[in-house]
Amino acid sequence: MAIDMSEKATLIIKNISNLITMRGPNRPRKKEEMSEIGLIKNGIIAASKDKIIYVGSGDLPKDIEIAQDAKIINAQGKTVTPGLIDSHTHLVHGGSREYELFKKLEGESYLDILSSGGGIYDTVESTKKASFDELLKKAEKSLNRMLSYGVTTVEAKSGYGLDDFDTELKQLEVIKELNRIHPIDLVPTFLGAHAIPKKYQGNVDKFVDILITEMIPYVAEKNLAKFCDVFCEKGVFSVDQSRKILSAAKEHGLFLKIHADEIEPLGGTELAAELGCVSADHLVGASDEGLKKMAENNVIATLLPTTTFFLQSEKYANARKMIELGIPIALSTDYNPGSSPTENLQLVMTFGAIKLHMNPKEIITSVTINAACALKLEDKIGSLEVGKKADMAIFDVPNIEYLIYHFGVNHTQTVIKNGEVHDIAVVS
Ligand SMILES: N=CN[C@@H](CCC(=O)O)C(=O)O
Ligand SMILES: [Zn+2]
């Protein structure tokens, strides 16, 4: 096992029944690699402040110095994984849309609700009305929940201001502030192209122009986002409009994501391959041709099965076909007030098994190293290896199969973020 003896251990987790390291190359894992989780039985892991300095089994080598006030955790009977990564969320928003669930139960579709001025537009109004502090407090509560589920890094999008740039910026500033005050690391994404603003419904190209010439350059220049995203969907942004927006973002140095073929097979998957998006997300309606192109161009598929569930759709993304084609998969909550109001990534993992037919090892890969790659953070997080961040979750479960099987509850006992210990109240 690799070892760094230059610093004293400040945290040791020992007697770990199942230590899931995810060790291996710092790149997206595909095909059979998605089932290589680097399991160590009777594992031990040591960190010096926020960095991992040792990963192995049995005892710590004698030559590692232990700090006097080192924290030692006994993880007998437990399972330890890299801190989970939620790589697609709409974390910062005002209000809620519980009424929409019941409209959908009465037969209205998500896109019907959106085209009649509800859905995302409803949240745009609530987010405009909410103060910076109100948005901050609400998102902080969600982040606390996410941390409690074992999540240590979260992507967060704007997208509830649209043409109201001040609201878009307010969301991005809230994300920046949360990054400062909350243990979870946040990765900001600009999603001004989340719906056609009501004012531009007859003139979408004008809004695309504003996005390209004003909003994206400003967001990039002020370093307010790492990624740019577009909702490419029937009745929202077309493939051509999405191409224009994402190409401009690329020119301004932003990495790309796309909400692609979520409901209708429009061609967002093909566009993701053409532009070299880091990830294409949703993909329920993706064409076989589009998927082949994604595989050829190393685009990660971020799948969001709780969204499909909550939209009450019969058809889920074809994860097995994607894995067969060599597309790396990340799994995420898509936490948002309309189509996936849950912060529970453990629940998403269960959906990964039951609805996407992924095996437990593929599922763990999808919420650790592949999710890290979907955020371009694979050099820092996603696996437990010397030199990487001390971000880990200790689950009170005998194996990862159990974590996925006993569903809808929280199995986290302790979360380690940047080497800091956060105890989570579990019922045992
Ligand atoms: N589909 C577009 N955006 C979100 C939903 C946002 C909302 O409904 O507020 C999604 O990824 O599911
Ligand atoms: Zn989304």
TrEMBL record:
Subcellular location: Cytoplasm
Pathway: Amino-acid degradation; L-histidine degradation into L-glutamate; N-formimidoyl-L-glutamate from L-histidine: step 3/3
GO annotation, biological process: L-histidine catabolic process to glutamate and formamide; L-histidine catabolic process to glutamate and formate
Residues the record lists as binding N-formimidoyl-L-glutamate: Y160, N336, G338
Chain residues that bind Fe(3+): H88, H90, H259, D334
Protein name as annotated: Imidazolonepropionase
Alphabetical UniProt keywords: Cytoplasm, Histidine metabolism, Hydrolase, Iron, Metal-binding, Zinc
Gene: hutI
UniProt similarity note: Belongs to the metallo-dependent hydrolases superfamily. HutI family.
Positions annotated to bind Zn(2+): H88, H90, H259, D334
Domain of life: Bacteria
Organism whose genome encodes this protein: Petrotoga mobilis (strain DSM 10674 / SJ95)
Required co-factors: Zn(2+); Fe(3+)
InterPro entries: Amidohydro-rel, HutI, Metal-dep_hydrolase_composite, Metal_Hydrolase
Main location: cytoplasm
Domain Amidohydrolase-related: start-end pairs: 79-420
Function: Catalyzes the hydrolytic cleavage of the carbon-nitrogen bond in imidazolone-5-propanoate to yield N-formimidoyl-L-glutamate. It is the third step in the universal histidine degradation pathway.
The protein's enzyme class: hydrolase
EC numbers: 3.5.2.7
